[in-house]
Structure formats: C-alpha cells, structure tokens
Design goal:
The complex is a heterodimer of chains A (447) and B (313). By secondary structure, chain A is of the alpha/beta class. Chain A has three domains: 53 residues, Orthogonal Bundle (3-methyladenine DNA Glycosylase II, Chain A, domain 3); 250 residues, Dihydropteroate synthase-like (TIM Barrel); 122 residues, Rossmann fold. In chain A, 42% of the residues lie in helices and 17% in strands. In chain A, helix 9 links the parallel strand 10 and strand 11. In chain A, helix 5 runs parallel beside helix 6. Chain B has an eight-stranded parallel beta sheet with strand order 8-7-6-5-4-3-10-9. A two-stranded antiparallel ribbon of chain B has the order 1-2. The chains are: A alpha/beta (447), B alpha/beta (313). Chains A and B meet through helix 8, helix 9, helix 11, helix 12 and helix 13 of A and helix 7, helix 9, helix 10 and helix 11 of B. Bound molecules: cobalamin and iron/sulfur cluster (SF4). Iron/sulfur cluster binds next to helix 2 of chain A.
C-alpha cells in the first residue's frame, strides 16, 4: 500500500540537515510520498530502513528502458487506469513483425514500411518505432532477418525462445539493447542468463495469467526486474483480458509481480487480416498495450493509429496550444492575404499543413481562443468578432500588414458581418469549412 | 504463486434498451462490467454495429462502396443491401438532404424516405438527422408518427430541441430517443435529467456523448466515456446509465486522411483504404471507451468491427 508523507517522515532522522535538497525532513517526506523524488536523495537513512521504504514507495509499475540513442524508449511507469485520473506517461510503441516463417516478400514489405512511413504530426515524429523479429524454426534465416532489422537502426524485439539461436541474435544486435522475448516456464533460466549477459530487457510469456505470474516470480527471484510481459496469449479475447488484468493488478490491486509494461502481438492474433490488426492496435492503444506488433505499418494504418496515440497520451491537464501571433507561410510578407484561426495546436497543425500545400503566401493569424478548436471556441465565446478585433489591436496587425483581406474559418462564417463592423476597411472572406479544401480555394482566390 | 484474479463486477447495470421489432430486434446495454470486460462477468448484450446509408443515395460513394451497392436503384434497394452486410445489426438512415443549408428536402420527402427504408429491411432502424436542430425536430416528429410500432431510434435530441423531440418521439409515439451532448459528463447528465423530467422513461433513451475521429480530439471522447461509465456503474448514477450510441462514419470519413485523393498525396496510398482504417480505428477506440453501439458506413469496416466484438465476447 502507498505510504503517506507522515509515515515516511516518522522514519527520517528529523535533523533537517538539507542534504537531500529539501528544506526539512518533512518536506522531503512529502515529496517522496507524491513520487516527486526518490528515497536515495537522503544519505542518512539506514540500509534497512531504505529497503523497507523502497518496497513500499516504489511506483506500482516499473519503468523499463529499451534501445539506444534515437531508438531509446521508456515503457511502463503508469500509475492510473484512466487518463483523466492523472495522465498516461509512456506512449505505446508500434512495431512491425519479421519472421523466418514469413515469405521474403512479406518481410521485405514490412522493412519497406520502416523506410516509407516517417512524418511529423503536431511536432511529433511518427514512424515505426521497433521491429519484432520472430523465431519459428529456421535459425539461419532468422539471424539474417536480425541483421537486416539491425541495419534499419530501429529498436529490436528479438522473440526467440531457443537460447542457442537467441545467443546468435544477441551477438549480432545485443549492443543496441533490444528486448529478448520468448521466455516462458520451460526456458526462463537459460534466457535469463542471456539477458543478463547482454544487459537487455527480457520478454516473458505464459500460457495463461497464472503461468505468467509464476514465471515472473521465478525471474524476480533470480534477481531480474527488467522485464516486459507478453500478454498475447492464444486468442483476442485472452489477450485483451490479460492486458487489462495485468495493468489492473499492478496499478489498482497492488500486485507488484505484474508491475511491468506489456507487449501485444496483433500480427499473431489476426495473421493476414490488416483491418483486424488495425482494430486491435486501436483497442490496445487505449487498453494498456506498451508495445503493439503488426505485420505491416502502411500509411493507412499509421495515420489513424498514430493520431489516436497522440490524443490518448496527451496530458489532460495541459491543452495543446500554440502562441497567438502572425505566422508567415510560404514566404508571406506585408502584402500577402491573412487567414485566421484559433490557438488549438491540432487546428494550427491541420490548417498550416494545408496552407503550405497550397504554395500561396499567407499570413496565418493565430488568435487567443483558450486552446479550443474553432467550434468549441465559438460555442464558448472565445472566438468572436470582439475577440478577433482585440487580437488585431494587441498584435498590431494593421501596422504590420498592408493587405486588407482576411480569410476566416468556414465553420464560423456567421461571424462575417460582425467582423466587418469591428474591422472597417477589411474584406472578410469565409473559407470552406474543412481545411482540406483550402488548396483549391486559395489558388482560385489568387487567380 | 498463482495470479489472484479480482473481477470487478458492479451491483448495477447499464440500462437495456431494445431497438426494432420481431426476430431481428436488438438489445443495447445491460452490462455490469467495464466496457468489453467479458472476463469479469458475461456481458448481457455485446456492443452492436450499425450501417449508415443516406437519403442522398450513393452520391460520393467510394469504389468499394459502389461495388457493394451495385445494382441498387432505389433507396429501398440500398437499405436492403445494407441490412444484409455481414456484421450489421441495424441500419441507420441519415437524412443529409434535409439540411436547410444544403438540399433542404421537405419533411414529406424525408418521411417518405424513412418509410421506404423501413419497409425494405427487417433489422432495426435508426434515424439520424441533418444536424440542424430545428429541422431535425420537425423531421423526427413526423417520421416517429409515420413509423409507429417499429421501435425506431432517433439521433438525436440536443439542448436546443430536446423538448420537441422528447415530447413527440419519446412520449407521443413511444419510440427511442438519443440524447446528444458535447464531450462533457455534466452536459450529458443534465440533458438526461431534462428529458426524464419531460416524462421520457430512461429505458427509452440512449446517449451520444460526442464523437471525433482518431487524432482529432479523440482524447475528450475517450475520457468522457470513461467517466460516464464509471459514474454509471461505480456510483450507480441512474442519469448516466443509458447505453451509448456513437456515430463514427461521419467523423471518420470527413478528415483529411480519408478524403484527400491518392493523386494529391501519392505516398499515402489508396484513399478508400485510408478511410476504412480511419473508421475501424475510431470505432474500436469508441468500443474500448464504452460505446454500446457504433454506426459505420463502409461494409469492410462493419465486418471487421463486428468480428472484433464477437472475438471479445
Ligand atoms: C473535443 C471537443 C471539445 C473539447 C475541447 C477540445 C479543444 N481543445 O477544442 C471540450 C470537451 C473541452 C469541449 C467543450 C465544449 N464544446 Co466541444 N467539441 C469537441 C469535438 C468533439 C472535437 C473538436 C476538435 O478537436 N476538432 C478538431 C479541430 C482540428 O477542428 P477545428 O478547429 O474546427 O478545425 C477544422 C476546421 O474548422 C478547419 N479550420 C480551422 N481553422 C481554419 C482556418 C481557415 C482559414 C480554414 C480554411 C479552415 C480552418 O480546419 C480544421 C480541419 O478541417 C467537437 C465535435 C467534433 N467532432 O468536431 C465538439 C464541438 C465543437 N463542441 C461543441 C460545444 C457546444 C462545446 C461546449 C460549448 C459545450 C458546453 N456547452 O459546455 C464546450 C465549450 C467549452 C467551454 N464551455 O469552455 C459543439 C459546437 C456546436 C456548434 N456548432 O457550435 C461541437 C461541434 C459538438 C457538437 N456537435 O455539439 N469540446
Ligand atoms: S537529507 Fe535526510 S535528514 Fe537531511 S533533511 Fe533531508 S531527509 Fe532530513
């Protein structure tokens, strides 16, 4: 059970020596209880007290690091079941699968996705995060795939329950800190040795939650707490059940044995069915998959899935906003037309993308709308003729821009008249409602 | 040591609401566990999947959709074909053409369209309006009257028109009403309270808690649904125990990912495939968050999403 600040305070030396960086022992205890700092900041706790407290104050789910350099990721560390309770901290990774049981064509297609799908969305790079290399029966072919996967520079998950073959794979790719998956009740000791030797995280599976629990306990007894739980199981139903129960057991029911991030192999659960894999990837993005494996990651999969992930892993306490102001696009200057929208980061991103695509120079004006979308801001009274007029004054638009044409979002076309009253001399043109139609609209306007 | 399973079964349940009549009628809701958690306890009624058609026929249909509906000449043909799509539990007729800002079809025309569709299918019917609250109220009243006894669901009653819609659809003609609010648990509750005060029985109501496509503010949809389900089950809040029906099609098929052509964005590949995946991903996320029914448009999405539900039950 979580300790209160007072519980922790009782065991501190109560000398207020400040060596921990906190002004008092009490302040220190409070911060530890909130998870803001860790116990080791106080050098004056006896080892015995430390061990006892460590156990009680450790977060319910361990934070596990995999990969190196650009491919280094943090998984787990979650403290809640629902994002509104606090926030989800470690976004899930999307991996593509390679396997010695797949055809060359299939493996090559997945590798091509790694190259092709790479773009930016609201300041975040979107690409295949990891490659899952699955060993089935052909060791030589498998090692070839590990080599190819390694060349991409991506983080690897080497899924191989055969210790001899796995050893070969780690010889090739161990330095890039892959995950070694495939440990189960039968082989965990041998795989644990390998994982230790190469200092990599071990992926553990079981035929059901009982066996998984049991194997994790045995690995912990061997001193390994760098684990990822493979909850794929034998069916979609069992995988979902396992993903939810592992998370719930650790975060809500205090079962530390399940306090690890998870991996779900959608490529296995719905082999050959990309529509179903997309559905599963969506389901497990919401419900507790830390790594989600798919056969392919084409743009049609990535666009909705990465967008969904970006939504779900935003901090609900912080709206995503951009600074109000003038954003010149396509080399706009004081003579270029103006287009206006709200300061919601998503809206800015969508509309600026279309403005850029049009090639037409535009002064993109971002008004302060509390970080809301166009209609939300309008409905909340944060985007109105008055708010726009106020923005024009504060940002000194008329002094900075000579052009007198202003394009407003089509969804608030009703504001046209009022804005004209507030901004004499300006020609107000409502755009089409959806940003996607901007390209055609701007080109015609310019013609 | 074995894993100690701690199933979380609530003492209360989501309301059960029936749609349609006869052999193919469906029940929504009834769960006593968190959405899709069938491992905690059996779920009375699996989430349902509806297929959307519009009074504008096959206007703007993608290649795959046109193929699926090939040979359909009338709205009745389209409705019948839709109702036969594998995985479709009900048909949703969206009265797009009624929008005063667009075609502004008359109430009579819309009633005729609704009757035509209803007569062509044996599965439950859902009527979706044109988003104009005033026009919707007029449409719903007349259609509810014309389709008495068919147990039709109307989407939706909103803050602006719930009185008229509730009084006609819910009270005078005993059909089912959806209460629509904008991603906010308090607004959802308030509208439900107002509707019940009007006399509409909670058992005749469903909720639309708002919808957005994946990547387009979906976090608000997810968190609103999470909170509503927790209040409904965890705190036995009777004013939030209505099943949730989420129209996904119109959101999914109107974002850039689904509408920009392959010509304009060659690296993104086949446009239809992008729309289908956007629809599937959004629908699966809605189900994970708590929708008791989703409404989709493409037959491929309908098939996949209902297969997902079947696999989870
Ligand atoms: C998420 C959401 C919220 C979130 C806020 C999220 C945010 N940061 O804005 C929350 C839950 C807080 C919220 C609250 C409210 N909401 Co709200 N919300 C939504 C929702 C589901 C998605 C909004 C979104 O993210 N859109 C995506 C962005 C990118 O869209 P956008 O800004 O409009 O930009 C697009 C276009 O406008 C265009 N565009 C934008 N700028 C420009 C500029 C130019 C030049 C051009 C060419 C194009 C262009 O490009 C973009 C892409 O095409 C919508 C419904 C929906 N599915 O759209 C309802 C919706 C906007 N909300 C609505 C309402 C009523 C409200 C509330 C007033 C409810 C209330 N009574 O409390 C409150 C207001 C806030 C408050 N009281 O403080 C209504 C508005 C109804 C109306 N027609 O006026 C909507 C439409 C829902 C509905 N159907 O009823 N909401
Ligand atoms: S270092 Fe330890 S003893 Fe010193 S103030 Fe901090 S908590 Fe107290």
């Amino acid at each position: 059970m979580a300790l209160t600040g007072l519980d922790i305070f009782k065991i501190t030396p109560k000398t207020n020596c400040k060596d921990c960086g906190s002004p008092t022992c009490m302040a220190f205890a409070m911060k530890v209880a909130q998870g803001a700092i860790t116990l080791d900041k106080c050098p004056h706790l006896s080892a015995e007290v430390r061990a006892k407290l460590d156990e009680a104050t450790a977060p319910p789910m361990k934070t596990i690091k995999i990969g190196t350099g650009e491919g280094e990721f943090t998984l787990g560390g979650e403290t809640v079941l629902y994002r509104h309770e606090k926030t989800f901290v470690s976004k899930n990774l999307f991996a593509v699968a390679l396997s010695d049981a797949y055809s060359d064509a299939q493996n090559d297609a997945a590798l091509a996705d790694v190259k092709n799908v790479d773009y930016e969305r609201i300041g975040e790079r979107m690409c295949v995060d990891a490659i899952f290399v699955d060993y089935v029966s052909d060791g030589a072919r498998f090692l070839e795939l590990v080599k190819k996967a390694k060349e991409t520079g991506k983080t690897l998950i080497i899924n191989c329950g055969d210790a001899a073959v796995a050893s070969g794979a780690l010889e090739i790719a161990g330095a890039s800190k892959p995950v070694l998956g495939g440990a189960d009740a039968s082989n965990f000791a041998a795989l644990n040795e390998l994982a230790k030797k190469y200092g990599v995280v071990l992926g553990v599976k079981g035929k059901d939650l009982n066996e998984l629990h049991d194997t994790v306990e045995k690995l912990e007894a061997l001193g390994n707490k760098e684990l990822i739980l493979d909850v794929t199981m034998a069916s979609i139903k069992d995988a979902f059940s396992a993903a939810v129960q592992v998370r719930r057991a650790s975060v809500k029911d205090g079962d530390r044995v399940f306090g690890y991030p998870s991996i779900v192999n959608a490529a296995k659960l719905a082999a050959g069915d990309m529509n179903m894999q997309a559905a599963l990837a969506s389901l497990f993005t919401l419900k507790y998959g830390s790594v989600i494996v798919m056969e392919r990651m084409t743009y049609s999969d990535a666009l909705p899935l990465y967008g969904l992930r970006q939504n779900i892993f935003t901090n609900p306490q912080k709206p995503m906003k951009v600074e109000p102001g003038i954003y010149p696009i396509n080399g706009a200057n004081e003579n270029s037309v103006c287009a206006l929208t709200v300061d919601f980061a998503l809206t800015y991103f969508v509309v600026s993308g279309e403005l850029e695509r049009s090639g037409v120079p535009v002064n993109f004006l971002i008004t302060d709308a509390g970080g809301y979308s166009v209609l939300t801001a309008w409905a909340a009274g944060k985007l109105s003729a008055s708010s726009i007029a106020k923005f024009f004054q504060e940002a000194e638009i008329e002094g900075k821009i000579k052009n007198r044409t202003l394009i407003i979002p089509g969804k608030v076309a009703v504001l046209k008249g009022e804005i004209e009253d507030k901004l004499p001399g300006w020609k107000i043109i409502p755009s089409p409602p959806e940003a996607i139609h901007l390209v055609k609209f701007l080109r015609e306007l310019n013609a | 040591m074995a894993f100690v399973q701690k199933p979380q079964v609530y003492k209360t349940a989501i309301n059960t609401v029936e749609l349609g009549v006869g052999e193919k009628k469906v029940a929504l809701g009834g769960a006593t566990v968190s959405p899709l958690y069938s491992f905690d306890a059996p779920i009375a009624n699996p989430p349902r999947v509806g297929i959307e058609i519009t009074d504008l026929g096959l206007e703007g249909a993608t290649k795959g959709m046109a193929e699926f509906y090939s040979g359909c000449k009338t709205l009745a043909d389209i409705a019948k074909r839709a109702s036969e799509a594998p995985g479709a539990d009900f048909v949703c007729l969206k009265l797009e053409g009624a929008d005063p800002g667009e075609e502004n079809k008359s109430v009579e025309d819309c009633v005729a369209a609704a009757k035509e569709v209803c007569g062509a299918i044996d599965k439950p019917l859902v009527i979706e309006g044109c988003k104009n609250a005033q026009k919707d109220a007029q449409l719903f009243e007349k259609i509810a009257e014309a389709l008495q006894g068919k147990n039709v669901l109307f989407l939706s009653a909103k803050e602006e028109n719930y009185k008229t819609v509730g009084a006609s659809v819910g009270l005078a003609y005993s059909q089912k009403v959806g209460a629509e609010s904008a991603c906010d648990i308090n607004l959802a509750k308030q509208l439900n309270v107002l509707m019940t005060q009007l006399g509409v029985s909670p058992g005749s109501m469903v909720m639309n808690l708002g919808s957005a496509a994946a990547g387009y503010g979906f976090e608000y949809v997810a968190s609103t649904m999470d909170r509503v389900k927790q209040a409904a089950l965890g705190q036995s809040d009777a004013m939030l125990q209505m099943p949730v029906v989420t129209p996904v099609a119109s959101e999914a098929w109107s974002v850039k990912e689904a509408i920009i052509s392959e010509e304009d964005m060659p690296e993104w590949g086949d446009q239809e495939q992008r729309g289908i995946k956007m629809e599937i991903v959004t629908a699966a996320a809605c189900l994970a968050s708590g929708s008791d029914a989703v409404i989709l448009k493409h037959p491929a999405s309908v098939a996949t999403v209902s297969a997902l539900v079947a696999a989870l039950m």
